[in-house]
Amino acid sequence: MLPGDLLIHSYRGETIVPRRVPLDSHHRQLAGGLIETFRLAHGSTQAQLDSTLGELEGDSPDYRLRRGLVHLLKSFCTFEVISPLEPVKLRSRLFALAATGTPGSLHTEHCLKQLSGILSEELERAVFPDQIRGALYADLSQNQVLTQFEEPTPDALLHRYNLSQVQGVFYRATHVQLNVHRNDPGEYKYLFRFLKLFGLMTYIEGEPEHGFTLTIDGPTSLFQAHTHYGLALAKLLPALLHVNRWDLTASLKTRDPYSKAVRTSTFNLAAGCGLVSHYPPGKPFDSMLEQSFFEQWQTLKTDWRLEREVHLLPLPGSVMIPDFRLVHPDGREYILEIVGYWRPSYLQKKFSQVRRVDCPRLLLALSERLNLEKAGVKLDNLPATIIWFKDKLSAKAVLQALD
Amino acid sequence: MARTSTLSFDRGSLLLHPPPRGKAWIDYATWDDRVEKFRIPAISYRPLVESLQHESTRFTDEARAFQVLSLESHFEMTPYPHQREALAAWEEAGGSGVVVLPTASGKTYLAQMAIQATGRSTLVVAPTLDLLHQWYAHLKAAFPDVPIGLLGGGSRDESPILVATYDSAAIHAETLGNRYALVVFDECHHLPGDFYRKIAEYTIAPYRLGLTATPERSDNRHCDLDHLIGPVVYRRSPAQLAGGALAPHRTVQIKVHLSAGERHDYDTHIATRNEFLKQSNLSLGGAEGWQRFVQASARSSAGRRAMNAHRQAKAIALGTESKLRVLAELLARHYPEQTLIFTHDNATVHRISERFLIPAITHQTGVKERHAILQAFRAGEYRTIVASQVLNEGVDVPEASVAIILSGTASEREYIQRLGRILRRGRDPNKNAILYEVFTQDTSEERTSARRHPHTRPHHV
């Protein structure tokens, strides 16, 4: 992501348009050139790298684009302190020595010589005054040495830049209204995992036929629209890019830098926006169990359709995303949740979810291997039909439970 | 019978569930559909609890996670009258409010008295790493039996008394919010900013103390302090305290000349810049002129060249060899007096440090090293420290008797605070502090220096 001063956008009417660079030969060349500068800077200090980059920048008016790319490239770098002696120790010894006399260039040379003599003896190798002078501030970030560079491709860098510019718009977001429809449950689970990770909350409305509307903000957004969760919303965007079908409206609150007046505006984005995520994608199925069940069902001859377009069942403070939905042409509908996990805490959570949720008819497929008693789970009062299975959930058993 | 209502803390806010009897609490609560409970801003904790108690409503308070501390101070001095009066005024106001006192008037000791009077878990928020460490050292000396922790500058402690930077406290506001009964906001004029205000908004702390020398903000948002901390409960100006805590001082201004080579480079850069300004029909007068120059410089190569020339000219005017020659002379004259050197930029700090072998403090200096340097300076092992802007706000360096400012920036607050630091009363009651201001002739900086002293004209040395 980019700091505020490197964000570039324009306005089309009231709509904010973040800078997006095309992946054409000019920009690929620019990105490639910068990547090469970083590659060649292996072993040089950050200050040397910055000065090379500064020379390359020259009088070019697109310096903010270049600096943005450079900022992103630095996140692929490792800089290290290279010094024969820990600089903090070196400084304290040299300064203590120097404090015994009147400051001045003669005194400085004298102290450097004196310490080089002492250190040569201590370390049993020659240490020169100039070496000490050079290593005195080796730990400052500008004096640290580039030792590792995980080189991205020019295209990956440009994609990351375009994504970061859009993420920058969200820094000023008070909340996001997200419409989702007909996505895999795995994608919803992936999205909600990141929502939770970044401390965000949702208000969910809708149903599977027409889609869901998620209002995303944080706990204290309730009292006042503010931008405290803007950074978290920006971080959510790369996760959202792994969801197939969505569109969103972000409500923004911006402060005019000169007049200080606060104004509100909106920003729209939708699936197919061309942005590329760098987060690792989730898996379409939670487990092999679900996948094999799904494949089995396709071989059955039945009017019941097994749908992956599911309900998002709001729970206070959370959401339940069942694995499947079963729909009959006559309008009957069931939800299917497969529980094959062992961890007691997971089971407790799952069953308390099932008890609290207000949902259509629920089929619960439980593995016989689950040690429910040990997990402290009782099956009384569950608003669900239970299907037990051993290693593999058979599609026929589920069909029987339906009819 | 209905279950007893429970008040709990949730990431900077409170949940009250199930809804209790009585009505008064409803004024503070908002229904939250997302969790199907009533939610209340954390900052309303105290009035909420008071209203529940007033109506004798039964509820379980699971929100508060602060503790009662037995605080025995090992570090007591007779408070100055203004410290005693300020504490009394703060307590009178129910333990929430802002105290306005000049730099170097003993705000830290006032806070120590407030912490002791409250006797509960306390969070202290300070704007810089130097102040962070200064509070840490002071509180450790005052309360040796209580764990004192740091948040920020590489540390992430959890302790009943915690000292944090504004940045770290804001980042962790959601989790810190219910752990402290008293929050002390040092230099509290920083608090109303967009990012920092949530430190106050997300905490349930019933007791709040704001400390500052200069509460006013140019954006007028100091009015928000009433809501975030409390009203100003006590206020004294430097004039009202003069002769008390502050030591006498004198200021000496030294004008230096650029070398011929520097003069030439400077003139060339300024000419390049002015040529562009003339061609583009721009003038640098007023804030708007500068804005227009910045905008124009982003649009063409000539504009970028002019902006770079402007920067280089400024750099020449700020960090000249001539100033370092004057510095060498001053250091020799005052050795071995305790001396502080301030410069405008880190590059000059390190240049001075390397040339004169003087320990440097910049924002890049680690907290431990910074602490060690200041300790050694206090102990007299180091005679001199060179620092950039990091020492700007109220850092306690009591033994300094000479301060040298090399090219500062024109900001009144910065100037007052820098002055306050060296004017702090040391152990020697006869101490006469000297402040040198070294600036360059015939550059924009001269105007900066003149702006600092509206009443005195710079004189030549």
Rg of chain B over CA atoms, rounded to whole Å, is: 26 Å
What's the number of helices of chain A? 12
Helix content of chain B: 25-40%
Which secondary-structure class do the elements of chain B indicate? alpha/beta
Strand order of the largest sheet of chain B: 9-8-10-7-11-12-6-13
> In angstroms, what separates the terminal alpha carbons of chain B?
86 Å
- Report the count of strand segments of chain A: 16
Low-confidence stretches of chain A: none
Categorize the overall geometry of chain B.
globular
How much helical structure, as a percent, in the residues of chain A?
25-40%
Tell me the span between the first and last alpha carbons of chain A.
Answer: 53 Å
**Helix/strand order of chain A, N-terminal first:** EEHHHEHHHEHEHEEHEEHEEEEEHEEH
Net shape of chain A: elongated
**Secondary structure: number of strands of chain B:** 19
Structural key phrases:
heterodimer, A: 403 residues, alpha+beta, five-stranded antiparallel beta sheet, B: 461 residues, alpha/beta, eight-stranded mixed beta sheet, six-stranded parallel beta sheet, 39% helix, disordered C terminus
